[in-house]
């Protein structure tokens, strides 16, 4: 599970954050429970065997077997004097010399190469050193008997060298004997978080040297997704040395796996992690052509639409986002019903293009589809209502289609699905129906994960498109062609053409093109408050009653500000309004900035709300997406609006903000004693008291002469678009590291909540122009501004977009990021890097197609990105051959 979930507090392996919760705690917490010994013996499961890697060679110790283990200890949250340890490790730590222990030796995962001359590349994490110590003893024995033995290059990942460096003296001996090249990575000893992944990517030549000479790769360490990170690092290293593509190196690793040259022994320290590990090992041990449905087996749910997908494969018990199996099934059923509705709407338009009867259906489709976006709506009752409404609209359209066909003399087409009549009142029946039509059922039926994943990418693109279109509709702005395409695309998924990869890719590109229209419309809509202009958003408390607005919707924020102004007129009470998350750019819009009620920004990106909201002394409004499971500390002050919803959280309809204001006035508010916000510090970025905002396309393009002169003078050598979504993963610190590493002739354009990984950095200005080197273009939808700036630059420099000194590094998380990526690809923009991981719905074969067609790449270490960037204009003092003196918006 991802950090931030309550579940991880109980099963996590980090002693600093884990909260022990045992049967003893349950009995102490609920004294009314009376349990006899017979109940305990009958219900407490028997401890399964614990497996440890043997760390000694029988050639060295023929009559002994050695193992190594560490004892993790946790203190009780109620009684610090009470400590907990792992069952097996704690047991062994109390054994005396000569004690008898029941043990059994079983065959391990690893198969050691027969030849002692085979090079070995290894990764050991913590007690994973066991296997390598035994292997080194084995090779040392043969070296002592005059055999020729090759070296082992070993990356040893530990926390602290002073207390975690197992067998240090012995390993040093093997280094001196020429048996070992040791690369220790002490993650917690320095200012930067160094792991074997870091060393593999920073020194790729050694990796290639071992593996290119028929070397064998061994990994022994923690399971889950960690082996995948090391695999990705090795692929990146090989790609760098070979100057190849990621796709070709993925094939290289696949060939190593098939030939036994890629071996993994992964372990975990608790049963919950062991279950996840076994699940992951199944995935790793099977080839891509083994369907996911065979791997996951029977499960309560299946969802892989976002970046927090469990184990990088799919959520099968409960969503990491907090989505329950019930809500997951209802969302799947709603999407399926929307496909039915869309089929009728699309075919009505085919027969009668000028119809005006679909307006209500169009607008309903938006909010219903938007509600299934990640972190938007978790309220099962709302989805039951949506399903009922969708079915009613579909029944009406079915009759209308027959009528229209008859009026135009056209024979109606038969619907391509089997009709079902699920009881739209019985939620259990709806859930059962949802499971029958969900993505897992299609994975099982199709036996083609790559194609289904690509089809799902289209669905997720449509969800992002619906979200952006709904934002514009809040202003009363809409374009019929967007509605038409949503229905066309859903109808396409019912057609035989959807079974052809190239046709699905074509529809994905069309989705990207239509989204460009949606982004342009939203840009125009947001400019209702004036085009963005440079400004400062403060991040310090101001005394007074307060409201916090989080999400994306500028119109809702404006309406809250207006409601506060009216409240002050009527009641004489001033309410300060703070933005949160992706509403930070609101401070760049002149009309919003002019409101005396918009006072500042509170907190960082969406995923920290569970830590931050409890420290806000007023009411909180979630506008649009990015809602996580509310905590008790602030649940009574939380409201939702628009498509957002959570069971038992008040939902404000049609701008009725009176309850929100009343709760704010009843709250404590900030006082003169509050000099800074007191929520927990962000471990990944430094806290700042102000943000520079307002550098939208109008402002940047308006400074054309200055920008182009800076290019000519050598103050700008390259532009970087670094942004997108933020998330829980520590790997997203990659974006921070990248921005820090760029030369001072770089200009960074950032969009979305991914900006919170870099907008605390003081990157200075472009020469003496006064223009910041870090330009905040706005929200994720302001990727439109990035596109406009790129097109304008290409025109001014008289070159193609892909010839620009421009690098795009995107952080993806949910479906808005998916459709933004589709837009960039549809414009022919190549060489984009995405991360921190490849979406689970994109199987390797499909990612390879996108890589070959668009040179789409997964992120790697910063040093490798800079090495693989086009160099025709990097860090030069001379400008491109020619340019015009103005930038034009297209």
TrEMBL record:
GO biological process: any one? Answer: response to hydrogen peroxide
> Which parts of the sequence belong to the Sulfite reductase [NADPH] flavoprotein alpha-component-like FAD-binding domain?
22-80
Q: Does the keyword Iron-sulfur apply?
A: yes
One annotated Gene Ontology cellular component of this protein: cytoplasm
The record's section on InterPro entries has: CysJ-like_FAD-binding (IPR003097), Flavoprot_Pyr_Nucl_cyt_Rdtase (IPR001709), FNR_nucleotide-bd (IPR039261), HCP/CODH (IPR004137), Hydroxylam_reduct (IPR010048), NADPH_Cyt_P450_Rdtase_alpha (IPR023173), OxRdtase_FAD/NAD-bd (IPR001433), Prismane-like_a/b-sand (IPR016099)
Q: Which GO terms describe its molecular function?
A: hydroxylamine reductase activity; iron-sulfur cluster binding; metal ion binding; peroxidase activity
Per UniProt, which keywords does this protein have?
Cytoplasm, FAD, Flavoprotein, Iron, Iron-sulfur, Metal-binding, Oxidoreductase
Any one Pfam family match given in the protein's UniProt record, by short name:
Prismane
Protein name in the entry: Hydroxylamine reductase
